[in-house]
Design brief:
- The complex is a heterodimer.
- The model of chain A has no long low-confidence stretch (mean pLDDT 96).
- Chain A has 18 helices and 32 strands.
- Chain A is of the alpha+beta class.
- In chain A, a hairpin with a 2-residue loop joins β30 and β31.
- In chain A, the strands form nine sheets. Chain A has a seven-stranded mixed sheet, sandwiched between helices. A five-stranded mixed sheet of chain A has the order 7-16-15-14-8, with helices on both faces.
- By secondary structure, chain B is of the alpha+beta class.
- Chain B folds into two domains: 76 residues, Ubiquitin-like (UB roll) (Roll); 68 residues, [2Fe-2S]-binding domain (DNA polymerase, domain 1, Orthogonal Bundle), CATH 1.10.150.120.
- Chain B contains five helices and five strands.
- Chain B has a five-stranded mixed sheet, with helices on one face.
- In chain B, α2 crosses α5.
- The mean pLDDT of chain B is 96.
- The chains are: A alpha+beta, B alpha+beta.
- Chains A and B meet through α1 and α16 of A and α2, α3, α4 and α5 of B.
Chain lengths: 761, 159
């Protein structure tokens, strides 16, 4: 690393102190005088026509101030693309998944609101439902939306090179069916908000990882200009995509109720509502076909992906796009064909989750590649090294890679003594069999797909030399606030404590696309750097004039400003700030910047072009112990060799890698919604099993350093790579321990025990 | 409905409340006493976000009827720091990146507090067990375990 004061250092989080003392306020912690509670009335059927809603009994209950139904929103619907706006704040006409919100009540306290919700009488005519995407695609299946045929929510078709020619050149062509599970983001803070409608418009304190989504949604829904919609961000208790990147029925109802009653209105979902109704990761079926030469070279890949979309579109088209456009990384693939289908069912809505789209198809391709290598007698590392791309590289669908640490990562793992502990095809006989697996995957950083993608920053100099920093980017836990402050302080030669990052407030902070697609450090970071440089330029002008020097020679370091080569021409930053602010009639020193990395062109219809500004590469080793009797897997160790370019805050990068890997471990090994005719059978944290501290392995993170000019100080993605690399690495390790390939996630002890029994017979 | 009087010590201060008997300890801490550092995650005693100390033991305050707090000493996350001086566990969580979103953090720190009070020198397995009732979705636990281990060492006078 260059000679930086803060960049590249293990700087503690700027929000650490308020989070360990309990001072940090989350949406549910807000309380206002006269505040009402909002509760949702939810459908007991997964697919039904709403015949009548009788709210009279609820309205008569003492303490109830308002009741609303879907009709009160005037037919407004939202969705990710103009042609997929199919989701109303409350169901209108019919419900499409179980526990969909059909009405809402506002009352003086939570208990009264709950009681009132039970008094809303809804008459339904049950409709036949469809819960399996492959069934829902068939002619004659129950139709969930009128605007599409055969429940086809969205499809993508990509075709590059000539797959038939590629398969003909191969020595081995395999076809396999893979499946990824029904999992949820798993944030602990349920969605919540407090809404206030008054003469200044709408104000919402809401748990949102991308507050500018709900800002636009509320403006559109309530026909308000954007300067009358104010989203103020509390601290966010985890996001991970999907739900907190989007609006919730509760948001719209709380705002409407505040408009109706003139009082602040709060809603907080309970965990059952979260697990039954919030957006989940799509579960997908992937039919994968791969061609390979005897030396391990991949000649072609063809994938057919079928995703269970649930009742509405949400952000599903992007999910399907990502399943394909990123399949050409991180291995050389001259011929690629991809057909992806998102299918409506009467299940809860599927949407984005950390590792968005890519985790599914990469899992399939990674495992299939290793299965074929095994058939051809090629070592798992060797087959990956054989096919790994090196930078610079352009894929067959014109994804451009300027830096790539995959080979170095794989070589790091190959040299690790733990890799030598693998069974190499001689799994132990028990009672506990040891296995080691690897994977090598890629993820995009600085997502740039359709629409507004830029980030802005405003840096305001205070006359005492301290800094107010305004960003629209949200830290939902990933640590971006800390990195952004590091960038500002680094540029201006200040200390962390000299820069104060303000909470996002759409009335004052610059508009921001949101926290998704590993874009905040890359894009909000670029904006922050430029805004700080803008202030620095203005101050350098003042200093240069005073010292009769070239502004280019003014150096900002260690809270001092000086002329390069003339140490006598120096003063504290604070002094220069005073001079600058008091100069003339009193100058206002404000710096602004916005990111430009994200302004690129990709062909969304064809799957052509870059979906990110840069790409990270993750090589992931996992060690497991498998109990041969019970099928229980203990994941003991992981080594993650991650190429995030330059880690701007290594402790944060480690933490992101570790957290992502464990979320990936949960989905690979045990997390899964049990479903029965659209009903979630395990909507609680006892039965929906997320990893706890005794379950997790020791995780070592190795930074693979690469040079990439497309991020501030060379930073690339660090938040999502390991959730993509963990599942194939774990499944590879379980194969090493058992000799069995598992192609469906989660790989539960039951599946392993059954497969081992079958193998014995 | 008849209200019941309860008296208890909260973070070192005496409190007297007249409460409806069905209310939980979590509700009175968050709503009546306005201490919102203690969080409600699942409300079913599974996630540990609402962990507080009752006497010298931690409880899931979402499951504890508030009447059980009568004559007890309750400590919440707000009761750990002494003015500007953080508890060593809090210090360690800041220094070792023991939190990300921070929502599980108050409960996690209270579990760590109980652990280190009963076992000042825990090994890694004991730390893992000590926080086994607290979900964290962000960190993968590694940095939490490191934070607690560092806090224990610091409290022993080590580095």
């Amino acid at each position: 690393m260059e000679d930086y004061s803060l960049i590249g250092k293990r700087i503690p989080r700027v929000d650490g102190r308020v989070k360990v003392t309990g001072e940090a306020k989350y949406a549910a912690d807000y309380d206002m005088p006269g505040m009402l509670w909002c509760k949702m009335v939810r459908s007991p059927h997964p697919h039904a026509r709403i015949l009548n809603i009788d709210t009279s009994r609820a309205e008569k209950l003492p303490g109830v101030k308002a009741v609303c139904t879907g009709k009160d929103f005037g037919g407004w619907k939202w969705g990710w693309m103009p042609k997929t706006r199919d989701e109303p704040p409350l169901a209108v006409g019919k419900v499409r998944y179980l526990a969909e919100a059909v009405a809402a009540v506002a009352a003086v306290d939570e208990d009264t609101a709950e009681e009132a919700a039970d008094l809303v009488k809804v008459e339904y005519e049950e409709l036949p439902g469809v819960f399996d995407p492959e069934e829902a695609m068939k002619e004659g299946a129950p139709q969930i939306h009128d605007y599409v045929d055969n429940n086809l929510s969205w499809d993508f078709h990509m075709d590059f090179g000539d797959v038939e020619k590629g398969f003909a050149e191969a020595d081995l062509v395999n076809e396999d069916r893979f499946e990824t599970g029904r999992v949820i983001t798993g944030f602990l803070e349920p969605p919540a908000a407090v809404a206030l409608w008054d003469s200044s418009g709408i104000t919402l304190w809401a748990a949102k990882q991308s507050p500018y989504f709900v800002y636009r949604h509320l403006a559109a829904c309530f026909k308000m200009p954007l300067n009358k919609v104010r989203i103020i961000q509390p601290f966010i208790g985890g996001g991970f995509g999907g739900t907190k990147n989007d609006s919730q029925p509760g948001d719209f109802c709380a705002v409407l109720f505040s408009k109706m009653t003139g009082r602040p209105v709060k809603f907080v979902y309970n965990m059952q509502e979260v697990l039954m109704t919030c957006r989940r990761r799509h579960n997908m079926i992937i039919h994968n076909k791969m061609g390979m030469k005897k030396d391990g070279t991949i000649t072609a890949m063809q994938s057919k992906v079928i995703a269970d979309g649930g009742g509405y579109t949400a952000i599903g088209p992007l999910t399907m796009y990502l399943t394909g456009c990123m399949s050409t990384l991180p291995y050389k693939l001259p011929n690629f064909k991809h057909d992806a289908y998102r299918i409506f069912t009467n299940n809860p809505i599927s949407a984005a989750m950390r590792g968005h789209g890519i985790t599914h198809t990469r899992f399939a391709a990674e495992i299939q590649m290793e299965m074929m290598a095994k058939e051809l007698g090629i070592d798992p590392i060797e087959v990956r090294l054989k096919n790994a791309i090196t930078a610079p590289h352009e894929t067959v669908n014109k994804v451009t890679v300027n830096s790539c640490g995959l080979k170095e990562g794989l070589e790091t793992l190959a040299k690790d003594p733990r890799w030598e502990k693998r069974s190499k095809g001689q799994p132990g006989e028990g009672p506990v069999s040891h296995g080691v697996g690897i994977s090598g995957t890629s993820y995009l950083g600085g997502a740039m797909q359709r629409g507004h993608q830029s980030c802005g920053a405003v840096v305001r100099l205070c006359e005492d030399g301290t800094i107010d920093y305004l960003t629209g980017a949200t830290d939902c836990g990933q640590g971006s606030d800390t990195v952004l402050v590091q960038i500002i302080a680094e540029e201006l030669g200040l200390r962390m404590e000299d820069v104060d990052i303000k909470r996002v407030d759409t009335a004052v902070t610059p508009c921001d696309a949101g926290s998704y697609g590993s874009r905040v450090t890359v894009m909000a970071g670029e904006a922050a750097q430029k805004a700080a440089q803008d202030v620095k330029g203005q101050l350098a002008g003042v200093a240069a004039e005073k010292w009769e020097a070239d502004p280019q020679d003014i150096v900002f370091k260690n809270q001092q400003v000086y002329v390069k080569g003339s140490p006598e021409k120096a003063m504290p930053f604070r002094k220069l700030a005073q001079i600058a602010c008091y100069s003339g009639s009193g100058a206002v020193i404000v710096g602004k910047g916005y990111s430009q990395y994200g302004i690129g062109l990709n062909d969304f219809d064809k799957g052509l072009g870059d979906s990110g500004t840069s790409y990270s590469f993750t090589s992931h080793l996992t060690e497991v112990d498998v109990d041969i009797e019970t099928g229980f897997v203990k994941c003991t160790d992981m080594v993650i060799a991650h190429d995030c370019g330059k880690p701007l805050n290594p402790i944060n990068v480690e933490a992101q890698n570790q957290g992502g890997a464990i979320q990936g471990m949960g989905q690979a090994m045990y997390e899964e919604f049990a479903m029965d005719h659209g009903k979630t059978l395990n909507p609680n944290l006892a039965d929906y099993k997320m990893p706890l501290s005794p379950d997790v392995p020791n995780i070592e993170v190795v930074d693979i350093l690469t040079e990439d000019a497309s991020g501030p100080y060379g930073a690339k993605e660090a938040s999502e790579g390991s959730i993509v690399s963990a599942p194939p690495s774990i499944v590879s390790a379980i194969h090493d321990a058992t000799g069995i390939w598992f192609k469906e996630q989660p790989v539960t002890p039951e599946k392993i025990a059954m497969a081992l029994r079958k193998k014995k017979e | 409905m008849e209200r019941k009087k309860i008296s208890f010590i909260l973070n070192g201060k005496s409190q007297e409340l007249h409460i409806q008997p069905w209310r939980t300890l979590l509700e009175i801490i968050r709503e009546d006493l306005q201490l919102t550092g203690t969080k409600e995650g699942c409300g079913e005693g599974e996630c540990g976000s609402c962990t507080v100390m009752m006497g010298d033991k931690t409880v899931n305050s979402c499951l504890v009827p508030a009447v059980e707090a009568d004559n007890m000493e309750i400590t919440t996350i707000e009761g750990l720091a002494d003015g500007d001086n953080l508890d060593p566990i809090q210090e360690a969580f800041v220094s070792y990146a023991g939190m990300q979103c921070g929502f599980c953090t108050p409960g996690m720190i209270m579990s760590a507090k109980e652990l280190l009070e009963s076992n000042p020198n825990p090994n890694e397995e004991e730390i893992r067990e000590g926080i086994a009732g607290n979900f964290c979705r962000c960190t993968g636990y590694t940095k939490i375990i490191e934070s607690i281990s560092a806090a224990a060492e610091g409290m022993q006078g080590g580095e």
